[in-house]
Design a protein that fits this description.
Elements lengths: L5 E8 L3 H9 L4 H4 L5 E3 L12 E6 L4 E10 L3 E7 L9 E8 L5 E8 L6 H9 L2 H17 L1
Antiparallel strand pairs: 1-7, 2-3, 3-4, 4-5, 5-6, 6-7
Length: 148
């Protein structure tokens, strides 16, 4: 049996897509809604605007990760591949997709794809990144976005 290496979660959020996207595209806001409890801090001023942008995030281990944007559509989709500074990307991807349902409701899908991951040291954490944990991020994001 082949191991499933893509986890995803979807939920409708009572906020417009632009509000939600801003919380995702500004790395300094990401630790507020991270349901993995992995993100610690990111310097302000790193707002993502295009494929190829890189933002730096400090993770729970106290180390930094470079995150290169590989998919980007303003207000709709953003995805990045993390790597340790100065090292190649490890082969996993984080993606957010936003689909307006109405002017005040957005369908949010969060995906973790580790199908290209080969680093055995990262496999345990990748396996623990389940749809339920991804939903934790969406739930926290929703709470912030719905507050306005």
């Amino acid at each position: 049996m082949t191991e499933q290496r893509i986890a995803s979660a979807t939920r409708d959020v009572a906020a417009d897509a632009a509000t939600i996207f801003e919380l995702i595209a500004d790395p300094s806001r990401q630790p507020e809604w991270d349901g993995m409890d992995n993100l610690v801090a990111a310097a302000p001023g790193q707002r993502v605007r295009a494929v190829g942008d890189v933002f730096v995030m400090t993770i729970h281990l106290g180390t930094d990760r470079n995150n290169r944007i590989v998919e980007f559509e303003e207000g709709r989709r953003i995805a990045w591949k993390p790597s340790e500074p100065g090292k190649p990307e490890a082969g996993h991807l984080w993606r957010w997709e936003l689909e307006p349902v109405s002017e005040t409701v957005t369908r949010v899908t969060h995906t973790y794809d580790w199908s290209g991951l080969t680093d055995e040291n990262r496999m345990g954490r990748a396996r623990r990144t389940t749809s339920e944990r991804l939903m934790g991020s969406i739930d926290r994001l929703a709470e912030i976005a719905e507050r306005g």
